[in-house]
């Protein structure tokens, strides 16, 4: 009897499986795994990184022989430990400044060139090795993409990353820099928006200072930096007399009133005292400040009153779609009036507050006439008159009935 | 009269038992004499007129009658509102807003319905307090007391279910608080919650439609039945202050005077109702958001005392024990006439007053406490 077919088939399958396993096992161990044998913590850290994901190997940065199984052989050839900080930016640039390699990732290739123009890059070129290099901000082995929330270059982590050096009092004093910038920023409206409310629309350090080309903006440029977001404010500011006067006198534009890092949200009431701080109490400019404040304040009160009335009307189930949209319009004018203040002139502010105020007044007038129950109240008086007449008739009728009853 | 058979009344009288229908209608308090339904309508009325009548038109014995009129107003205005109201959580507030805004006289009808309900509850509370003080629970009036208390309970339920219907924020959270209170009673509470909303203390579309059904059908029917039963009792026992039969003070055709007095009373009632509706409009409020608790919203005011009790005892009593105490207290209140101390002749009038005052004081204290912690 020949063996059953099924047995032959099983034997063949087992043989095939063993062969396949043998083939898999004999594949050379990958370069990283060889380095990681002695540098396990670096390997763990590296495996978190975007470079690992994109198949960049240890030797791409460090050179040497990743396949070597002996320490000496592994660290031969072009091995570099990159412990010399001066080497690092160039090494990163060897790939990141290469358009052919970066094109597929749609990454810019000018970071190195831009870095060289930055305060950090210039200091490094001058031999100051404590100046920030690529790895100080991006990390060494565990480099992550900026959009990765756990990355040190994610917008929410930027203040912390910059703060490693710029919050270090001893280090900053050596360079004559202010070590309180990071804590100032954290307390500012921008910092609170970013760090407390988690709004990525809020500016971080790099939004104003640049990313790789980090440099503080100078007088004459501040309005451009702030104006990147505060467009209307900048336009009004450029139209007014402050821009020319301040730049001529080398007074920082926006920062003179708003400060630079500890920027707080200004209430319009701040205008009351702000103008006098430079121009002196009782000056024409201080009077203008009072006027502007009065305009916006009274329009704001009117709009708030209109809004409260709309809510009251809504509670009384009146139709409020239209008044509500008009109140929104008035609020928009009111919002526009705040940037317009930066032209330090009465007219543009007045145009907007007048519109806001007249819309609010219209809405109030309309809703008051709808909410007013005067007609109903007059009706009620007439109704009571009718009721009292009825009662009088009934009482007379009853008296007659009673006397009839008693008579019978 | 009997021989003239040409009038419309006689035409109907030959086809329907008008005496019985009249008897049924007069059961709602217009007229307290018992009619012989085997007799012709004219005959029966003539007979009733000839009977000596008690002077039952005096304050405060008109409270039951006021309740009937207010209930009638609620039924009429409620039917008008039901023409437009849509009982789903998504449409409820919008449809009420439509009634208030777009429907002719919708706002007025809505306000009358609201204030009518408040007056009805006020009248019924005064009535129960009066029963308690005057001893209208002693033999043979045990059932009067039970019907009276149950009628008040039915009206509380009507108010509770009705207030939830517009699905506004305050209404929603007020109802949730009330459901939580009901849910604290063991067994009874879980059965009620299951019936009202599938076992949750959250207002869903099922809760809303069940509230609606209770509000427009079951509770009004219960109220009408209880009032009928109450006035049947009045007609059997006579309207008197205490357990003994009062001798009729006036004979003859006092019915017409009585009717006139009623007309005057109802005119004044109408005036008060319309004035309240016009001068103190009840606001609609914002739409309910189940994920946003409106702060400071407690249960409806008549549930503040039990709510206050539960809050007061929460630190040292498990919820189910508190709920049981509430349930037993209420059951004892309903069955007051059968309690040992309250049976006929068990107590002097002075002592009744003390007990009533004590009950009221506890109730008011718990209400104030409940309002403060709500």
Q: What would the keywords be for this entry?
A:
heterodimer; A: 408 residues; mainly alpha; B: 374 residues; Cytochrome Bc1 Complex, Chain C; 65% helix; 0% strand; globular
Protein model, in words:
The complex is a heterodimer of chains A (408) and B (374). Among the domains of chain A are: 217-263, no CATH class; 265-372, no CATH class; 380-408. Helices cover 65% and strands 0% of the residues of chain A. Chain A has helices at residues 5-25, 31-38, 40-47, 50-53, 58-62, 71-74, 88-96, 99-102, 111-117, 119-125, 134-138, 158-166, 169-175, 181-187, 189-195, 205-209, 222-227, 231-239, 242-248, 253-258, 271-279, 284-315, 321-340, 346-371, 374-407. Chain A is elongated. Residues 25-29 of chain A have low confidence and may be disordered. Chain B has a single domain (60-240, 252-373), classed as Cytochrome Bc1 Complex, Chain C. Chain B contains 14 helices and no strands. Chain B has helices spanning 8-15, 18-26, 41-50, 63-82, 92-101, 106-134, 142-164, 169-183, 188-197, 205-237, 254-279, 304-313, 319-334, 349-373. In chain B, helix 8 (169-183) packs antiparallel against helix 9 (188-197) and helix 12 (304-313) packs across helix 14. The N and C termini of chain B lie far apart (66 Å). At the A-B interface, helix 25 of A face helix 5 and helix 11 of B.
Compact overview of the structure:
The complex is a heterodimer of chains A (408) and B (374). Chain A is mainly α and 408 residues long.
Layout: helices, strands, pairs:
The complex is a heterodimer of chains A (408) and B (374).
Chain A: H1 5-25, H2 31-38, H3 40-47, H4 50-53, H5 58-62, H6 71-74, H7 88-96, H8 99-102, H9 111-117, H10 119-125, H11 134-138, H12 158-166, H13 169-175, H14 181-187, H15 189-195, H16 205-209, H17 222-227, H18 231-239, H19 242-248, H20 253-258, H21 271-279, H22 284-315, H23 321-340, H24 346-371, H25 374-407
Chain B: H1 8-15, H2 18-26, H3 41-50, H4 63-82, H5 92-101, H6 106-134, H7 142-164, H8 169-183, H9 188-197, H10 205-237, H11 254-279, H12 304-313, H13 319-334, H14 349-373
